[in-house]
Amino acid sequence: MILVDHPLVRVHITALRNKATSVDAFRLHLTALARLMAFPVLGNLATQEIEVTTPMAQTVGVRLLREPILVPVLRAGLGLVEGFRDVIPGAVVSHLGMYRDHETLKPVRYYSNFPMERQNHPFILLDPMLATGGSAVDALDYLKSEGAQDIRLVSIIAAPEGVARVANTHPDVPVYTAALDKRLDEHGYIIPGLGDAGDRQFGTL
Ligand SMILES: O=P(O)(O)OC[C@H]1O[C@H](OP(=O)(O)OP(=O)(O)O)[C@H](O)[C@@H]1O
Ligand SMILES: O=c1cc[nH]c(=O)[nH]1
Ligand SMILES: [Mg+2]
């Protein structure tokens, strides 16, 4: 697990945790946080040298060898898409629909659109909350079953249970988070957490 630590990251996380933060402000803080997370998450992307002509001379620059595929887990992962897209030229977005059954806490997959012709690209799995880890493990199982090999998981708040579960089942996948919280409650919610990330973004409280 890679803990992304930066004063601004902590400021945005604090605003997201605050129950007084409005739906609109929540969205803005989440987007700003996603932009900050993109830097460490994408730090080792492969590039290729290209020539570029400035108004003054020719020089050498780079372009991405393979553009990352962003995979937001619906609904909550949608809030991380804009911040990542802002900084990745040519990013493709491939949605994965999944919700956690309230009784069993097991993930239920209801939509996918894997980009078959890009299976050798880096995949950035976006889901702000890593709680029991059930959803993340199912999403990773799915991406690998379709042929993805280079996958990074981006959360913003993680519980120790979820981090351990992903590490045990998918040790090759780096897990980035902005906060490692204390525990889960009896309903599988992260404590202190921020509540339900989907509801807080879309106002469905
Ligand atoms: O680690 P887990 O225990 O699987 O829990 C995490 C999942 O729960 C939330 O989704 P939710 O079911 O609330 O769906 P939503 O985004 O549509 O609200 C969250 O966005 C994760 O996908
Ligand atoms: O605390 C939690 C746990 C799962 N999903 C959320 O949105 N929040
Ligand atoms: Mg939810």
Q: What does this 3D model show about the protein?
A:
GO terms for molecular function: GTP binding; uracil phosphoribosyltransferase activity. One of its GO terms (cellular component) is cytoplasm. Residues 4-204 form the Phosphoribosyltransferase domain. Catalyzes the conversion of uracil and 5-phospho-alpha-D-ribose 1-diphosphate (PRPP) to UMP and diphosphate. It catalyses: UMP + diphosphate = 5-phospho-alpha-D-ribose 1-diphosphate + uracil. Helix 3 (81-87) links the parallel strand 4 (69-74) and strand 5. The protein has 6 helices and 15 strands. It is globular. Helix content is 32%, strand content 27%. It has a single domain (2-202), classed as Rossmann fold (3-Layer(aba) Sandwich), CATH 3.40.50.2020. Strands 1, 4, 5, 6, 7, 8, 10 and 12 form an 8-stranded mixed beta sheet that branches. It has a 3-stranded parallel beta sheet with strand order 9-11-13. Strands 2-3 form a two-stranded antiparallel ribbon. The protein starts with a strand and ends with a helix. The model has no long low-confidence stretch (mean pLDDT 97). It is α/β, with parallel strands linked by helices and 205 residues long. Helix 1 packs antiparallel against helix 2 (23-41) and helix 2 (23-41) crosses helix 3. The protein binds 1-O-pyrophosphono-5-O-phosphono-alpha-D-ribofuranose, uracil and magnesium ion.
